[in-house]
Amino acid sequence: DDAMNHYHASELRRRDADLATPFSVDIGAAGQSVWQCQAVLRWLPGKRLVMALCRGDQRVLCKLFFSSRDYRRELRGYRALAQHQIATPALLDHAVLPGGGSVIRYEFIAAPTLEEVNSATPLTARSPALLHTVAAVAAMHRQGLRQVDIHPGNFLVQHERVYVIDSAAVTTHRAPLRGRLARDNLATLLAQFETGQIDALEPIWQHYCRHWPAAPNWQREQLAAAVERMQRRRWRHYRAKLTRSCTEFGCRRGPRRFEVWR
To answer: Is 90 helix (H, G, I), strand (E, B) or coil?
Structure first.
């Protein structure tokens, strides 16, 4: 396509969020550098760009980092997951780019996130997709790993296999993870579903303990209280965004009008 825009990876740092796909991009890695971007999956201007790339029959997920600290955190998190055999997309290669920034390529896994599964059909406490994700969280906690930005969009669900993504958010602790950290981490994930949607925590609790046989030193009742606490915390945070411009909302104040829009 002669009209397709072409960029070098280092140029993209200066672009705004309006990147029309498809475009070709030279990521300067592994000697085979020019790919076609089919979709921009996540874009934090000046910080990180996540793309689905293809070339012929090949598909990869590519993360461009414009912060060396974020790049190093991503690599550390990936290595921690791989070391403890937590399912995560395989890292294909990584490099520091000569024009600035860094790149990591992962295998592309054609699977929906838990968030997308839930959007298609709201999950319950007995939904296999949620229980398989809870098992993955328990496996992380057993190994002293915690995803500090845990949310349904950070898990890919492929039948009974769940892949943890966003390695930069994975932190390491002494194994196993301390009870309070484990409880609040699981509660944070569960708090992100609609109120009343996860109607009973018993199946989740039993599944979690099945995958962490040396059961954590907290009880199901404490999990329920933690979920309610995290829901209140999330609402306070969300409410604070309702009257200011941010990623989700625009806000405009005038002498006669005050507008907020999604």
So the answer is: coil
